[in-house]
Amino acid sequence: MGQKISSIAVIVSLLFLPALLGLGWQAIALVNWASRGLAIALLFLCIDQCRMAIADLEQVAEVKLLVQNAQLEQFHRVTIATIVVELLGFYSAIGWLGWGVAIVLLSQVGFNIFAGIQLQPKASAPIIPWGIRDRLPVFIADGLGLVLIGCWLAGVQPLVMALGLLGMVSIYGLVKYGVL
Q: What is the pTM of this model?
């Protein structure tokens, strides 16, 4: 018998599904390659962020069974706020692609500034301090992504900027999921 799908996974997936479908449609239907490349990058990022939202919320629920403290509550609030802003960005991207990307990237910056911890439900200490210094590589990547989308929005080499973002998202996914 397979693993049971949590209610968190179902709800989060249903929240992200229309955005995924809209971005998928844009990736196919857009004729401008700069926009199409950006839509594909955001589609990949949307899939990953849906998965991360599920993982974070499931970890919060698991750790809450073990521990109740202010850090965990703040992490939970920051996670919910990030998911809301991400969804706003993903849905906005269906009509305003570049601005949607900018909103999603800014949500990532906000999460990494305010989260402050990492959750490891199986560890003896399930709440691990994880400050801004620990997240420095992520901030650098987010900053580069914001520069690229800013240039794309300004019309500076939009195809190059879109391909740069697509390359970043692709490398991120390959590294994160163990292909590289």
A: 0.93
